[in-house]
Design a protein that fits this description.
The protein is an alpha/beta fold. The strands form 4 sheets. An 8-stranded mixed beta sheet has the order 4-3-5-2-6-7-1-8, with helices on both faces. The protein has a 7-stranded mixed beta sheet with strand order 10-9-17-14-11-13-12, sandwiched between helices. A two-stranded antiparallel sheet has the order 15-16. The chain is built from 27 helices and 19 strands. The protein has 3 domains: 168 residues, P-loop containing nucleotide triphosphate hydrolases (Rossmann fold, 3-Layer(aba) Sandwich), CATH 3.40.50.300; 208 residues, P-loop containing nucleotide triphosphate hydrolases (Rossmann fold, 3-Layer(aba) Sandwich), CATH 3.40.50; 157 residues, Sec63 N-terminal domain-like fold, CATH 1.10.3380. The longest helix is centred in the last third of the chain and has 23 residues. Helix 21 runs antiparallel to helix 23. It is globular, with a radius of gyration of 25 Å.
């Protein structure tokens, strides 16, 4: 195989036995380096772990690598465990971090760890998981870290070297193999020069997406990935193309045949959402977002890789996928809702998505169109997003209670010596370092107040909480008060679901049964007490409250009702319901890893079996 210079440079470092940090644009070919590490490990008879930032990408990597490496591949996420002792094991970064904190993790058998999308270290909610994984990385494991373009890659490598005292080689690639050309839809006009935006600032005409898509079709610039920052708008824009058809007769026959075949394989025949999608598919149009059935998303992804879908409206997670390039990328707008406020895109995120334009080996150039609404995004902001320098990766270190408990079990009061190893300490000034230490001390103080930590170390309650990541505080209170033992299998599912579910703004308030109201009062009182202590100790963010909006859905499902029937109980998207049910299974499985009675384990197993069936069974989807 002929490698690009940056690929060859990284592979040469790997051959010399060095860990390597690679920063390159989306679509440059970073995966080739990961495949070299995997092939080399297989040839040597050693094991390798591949981590991905989200379950969807882990699943997709499993499918892709399974086609190459067959039975040598396994996957381990919170809701999937297939061939978990495989020579090449794919997992989410959270699962890897959790394994690092276990006493008997089995990681001594693995010689390499591949961190895909390591710039996720900058993620506000989950970045600390990457940082903890890097801090606690075993000395015997070599690392390949792959990242989108980041300007402070040297700082990141220097920090990793300072922690592990071993050299880590840096490889940068600034150029894309397929150059990008940028265009703007502004007041109904298509402009190919940023300066022209200012010239037409007073011109007023409709800025219609349909006009732009039809123009791309006429100019032979399809297929197109159209990025939208809202699920409903994905569907709305797809339906707006009601009068458009992007397929010839042969393509139409091929895509209908493939769609029907895939719908049959994934048991989607008769599903309302699959029927609605078919009317779009037969014209070369599709949409893809987290609110859809996971199996229908899988079908759309396979159709897109077949190059028969010409226009796909999708949210930003599609940018993380492998083998999902197009000729053109369109941005519906350059701002999005972050969960807290609306803001313009980061330059790094823009190029992660824009990088899907231009198919290597197929296109000689890629095209990126940004739709500009001056009422929402100023021209200065547009310039910053598209022509600014990518943002530095910033530490988001904020250890969870479960992580702190595991560290306390191992180091006692010496756990405070861990913080100076963090990227946060490496980057920040004295004031911010002192603030981080105070937060860590406050969390330990809370854990002592709530009797997770006693004079002799972790209590039974603390040991239990150390095994349940993310929702350890409320479930540990239920355990400590003996309430978990009193719950039925269905109630165990209901409480676990309430812990993971987060209602959308404006979500319909649930009507709760007498039994559910009783559970709500118990968990709400527990979390009120915990949040009150967190407020006093200035701990942020607070432990999440429990929300029982999906209780009726889950109870109906656990009583064997069909999935389409249980949706009458909620206004949540079907994909959101499935994802929350799967997260519930993950919480219940973590309870099984804790030291609980055989009676409770029996009920937890029953609860899992009642939930993890049919369309909820994530393993089934991967085995199809």
């Amino acid at each position: 195989m002929i490698y690009d210079p940056f690929q060859k440079k990284a592979i040469d470092y790997i051959k010399e036995g060095h860990s390597c940090l690679v920063s390159a644009p989306t679509g440059a070919g970073k995966t080739v380096i990961a495949e070299y590490v995997i092939n080399d490990s297989l040839a040597r008879g050693t094991k390798v772990i591949y981590t991905a930032p989200i379950k969807a990408l882990s699943n997709q990597k499993y499918r892709d690598f399974q086609g190459i490496f067959k039975d040598k591949i396994g996957i381990l996420t919170g809701d999937v465990s297939i061939n978990p002792h495989a020579q090449v094991l794919i997992m989410t970064t959270e699962i890897f971090r959790n394994k690092l904190l276990e006493k008997h993790s089995g990681l001594e058998k693995y010689s390499w760890i591949i961190f895909d999308e390591i710039h996720y270290l900058d993620d506000y909610q989950r970045g600390t998981v990457w940082e903890e994984s890097l801090i606690f990385l075993p000395q015997h494991m070599k690392m390949l870290a792959l990242s989108a373009t980041i300007p402070n890659i040297d700082e990141l490598s220097q920090w990793i070297h300072s922690v592990h005292k071993k050299p880590i080689k840096v490889v940068r690639e600034e150029k894309r193999p397929v150059p990008l050309h940028f265009f703007y839809q502004y007041h109904g006009m298509i402009l190919d020069n940023f300066k022209k935006l200012r010239s037409f600032a007073r011109h007023k005409s409709p800025n219609r997406p349909v006009t732009l898509i039809n123009r791309l079709y006429r100019e032979n610039k399809l297929p197109c990935i159209y990025f939208v920052f809202g699920r409903r708008r994905c569907e709305y824009l797809a339906e707006e193309l009601v009068g458009s058809d992007f397929l010839n007769e042969k393509e139409r026959r091929d895509i209908i045949a493939l769609y029907e075949k895939l719908c049959h394989r994934f048991d989607l025949i008769g599903e309302k959402s699959a029927s609605i999608m078919r009317s779009l598919i037969e014209r070369g149009i599709a949409y893809h977002h987290a609110g859809m059935l996971p199996t229908l998303k899988e079908v759309i992804e396979q159709l897109f890789t077949s190059r028969l879908v010409k226009v796909i409206f999708t949210t930003e997670t599609f940018a993380l996928g492998v083998n999902m390039p197009a000729r053109t990328v369109v941005f519906d707008e350059l701002r999005k809702y972050s969960g807290r406020f609306f803001g313009t895109l980061k330059t790094r995120d823009f190029y992660q998505m824009a990088g899907r334009a231009g198919r290597r080996g197929i296109d000689t150039e890629g095209f990126v169109y940004s739709r500009i609404n001056p009422h929402y995004t100023t021209l200065e902001e547009v310039w910053r997003v598209i022509y600014g320098r990518p943002e530095k990766v910033i530490s988001r270190f904020n250890a969870s209670y479960a992580t702190i408990l595991n560290l306390y079990q191992k180091f006692g009061e010496g756990l405070y010596d861990i913080y100076p190893l963090s990227f946060h300490y490496f980057q920040k000034n004295t004031r911010k370092r002192d603030k981080a230490i105070k937060l860590l001390q406050a969390k330990v103080k809370l854990l002592k107040e709530l009797k997770h930590i006693g004079p002799d170390g972790l209590t039974d309650k603390g040991i239990f909480a150390s095994r349940v990541y993310g929702y350890e505080m409320p479930i540990a209170e239920l355990y400590d008060e003996g309430l978990l033992e009193d719950l039925t299998a269905v109630q165990l599912g209901v409480v676990s679901l309430a812990m993971v579910f987060e209602p959308r703004k404006g979500a319909r308030k649930p009507i709760l049964s007498k039994n559910t109201k009783h559970l709500w009062r118990i968990t709400d009182n527990m979390l009120y007490r915990i949040n009150k202590i967190e407020k006093r100790l200035e701990i942020a963010p607070f432990s999440k409250r429990c929300f029982y909006h999906l209780t009726s859905c889950l109870e109906a499902w656990m009583n064997k009702e069909p999935f389409d029937r249980i949706l009458r109980h909620t206004d949540a998207d079907e994909g959101e319901v499935i994802r929350c049910f799967r997260m519930t299974i993950q919480v219940l499985r973590e309870v099984l890893n804790a030291p609980v009675s055989s009676g409770l384990k029996e009920k937890v197993h029953k609860s899992i079996s009642l939930i993890n069936r049919g369309i909820i069974d994530a393993e089934k989807q991967l085995r199809e």
